[in-house]
Amino acid sequence: MLRVFFACVVIFVTLAGSVSPGRAEDDPRVLRKEVLVQSSHWQLKRWNDGFVVCDLYVNHASQPTVDDANFSCGAKVAETWLTTPVCAPAQYGGSSASCSGLMLRYVGGQTRTETIETELPDISMRLYVTDCQPGEWCESRPGLKLVAEEPVAGYQITNIFVRVVNNEKAFSGAISELKLPPTDEDGEWLEYWAESDFGDRSERYQVKYRAYSSVQGERQVYRFDLLTNEYAATLPGGALLWQMFPPADGSLPRSFEQPLSAGYLATTNRYTLLAGQLIRNGLVDAASCSDRGLLQNGAASACGERVAADAVLTWQNKYDQQIFDAGSRYSVPARLLKGVIAQESQFWPESSDPYEQGLGYVTENGVSMLLLWNLDYYAALCLPVYGNGGCAGGYASMREDRQQVLRGAVFDQLGSDSEIGLIAAMLYASAAQTQQMVKNVTRAEPSEATTYEDMWKMTVANYYAGSGCLGSALSASIDEEYPLKWDTLAAHLDQTCKIADDYVWRVMYYSE
After folding, report:
1. How far does CA 347 lie from the centroid of its chain?
2. For residues 342, 346, 348 and 354, what is the CA-based torsion angle, rounded to 10 degrees?
3. What is the CATH number assigned to the segment(s) 124-234?
4. Residue 304, CA distances (Å) to 27, 191, 347, 510 in order
5. pTM (2 d.p.)
6. Contact at 8 Å (CB) between 298 and 276?
7. Is the N or the C terminus of the chain less surrounded, counting Cβ atoms within 10 Å?
8. Where do the CATH 2.60.40 domains begin and end in the chain?
């Protein structure tokens, strides 16, 4: 629809070069340049009395757009202007007093100074391993190669600095190579950064490594581990999250080892409830048993166990490949994951309890823990539904109806190919929550407060009993000697929480 407005076309001009570029004092990687710009001043006025409803300043040569009006005047005013009919009397020089709506009027141009900021790319650094691969024992002492890059043309890296075990060393140029000092089983922090003749430094990078020296036979060997995302596949579950190493002397229980393949997960455990389900659902014929192979509680009788033995053996290993893949993806020990499923459901996918569902007996509280503490999982689920704006505040800040939608999406995965991954993601979430509780109560990092093995036992207890039980036990153990052991914490469990200790023991038993 046409509208009458009185204006001259204003040409938008940028008068560059009035002030030469300069670096910001607070950030040398930001260049600031002042330029003169000329903008147009417009007004939206009422036709009937000329009252100015809104002033608009636009940095382009055309009349304001609807978006400009929305931004400067609000949606209601913009809509009124957009739907204003033609004021016929004004077209012929008559009075506009009888006209409704808003007209657009050009007021004039305005010149002002604007500061344009240009962010320059930062120095980047890359780390390479030499002489020994992470996750291996080597006769050569592990080494690192550090490479720094200056992305701004005309400038170059002058030095690389490395600090490790309270010693700092400078290397000239953009490449440095060094042998790592030997460490104990707990490892050491390595810090490195670079300087440029641009006049600044890179950020300080930190990485935890272990170059544990040992004698095997008559040979000096080193166990090399590196806590970085690039080498996460070489690390046992949880090590990267907690920034701590498991023992290097072979004393780590099998439950926490990362198997080489799914074939190493095979078990031969007796599962009387699973045997009973196989019989009850017609997957095993127990007609030869006088009691039909079942006890009154639904478990298999002795005869039922015998006739279902082969089926139980096959069934308990049918998910091994999925368990192996999920353990690798979510950085949880695959055997421990299998032990949790064994304890929860004995691998039977259906539950008679509507509040505990699937192979992992998933609950509403467990799903909330997942969405609160496994941030990657939460983001992958939330962003396609609610976008950045709806998800940025985290699960805890969402409206209840939106939380319910996300929880429903999680429960929809039960019974699908994603179910094992869901349980692994929940176990990782429990590991993250456990880490925070340990830090909150002890005021120390997990590597200083407890052991790798005991962190996983706490994680399993938290998965089952919840943060209230574990948090109370941690608080009650604050005066105990470090490193905190699960057996010590279990002695401080509240009466209603003591079943968590039995749960941990059973998971460990099924994980071996």
Report:
1. 28
2. -90
3. 2.60.40
4. 74, 61, 18, 21
5. 0.77
6. yes
7. N
8. 124-234
